[in-house]
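User: Run a structure prediction on this.
Assistant: Running it now.
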Amino acid sequence: MNFPANLRYTKDHEWVSIEDNVATIGITDFAQRELGDIVYVEVDTIGKPLEAGAVFGTVEAVKTVSDLFLPVSGTITELNPALANSPESVNSDPYGEGWMVKMTVNNPADVEALLDAAAYEAVAG
């Protein structure tokens, strides 16, 4: 499995990249493999301030629906528009074309408190 070293991770299998105070968030390679074929991503929290750990949406696979948890506090500003027509990009490219949301982060230093690639790999097994 692939866990890029430039990202931060949560125990709930989300990844985060940050540039200034804007974070891009998606689910990890491990998570997409566990879920199977993804058919729909729903995020109805755009524009709402949320705390770290809050559910910000759901991802639907052929056999299950899973909640998506916000890694850091802030406000979601954008849902990846490509997911409406090609949710399977979460399976094929979870760290690239399959990103899910962008958000403004309340405190960018919070991202540093998340797991690095080695720590996440230990969690994911």
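Residues 1 and 86 are 22 Å apart (CA to CA).
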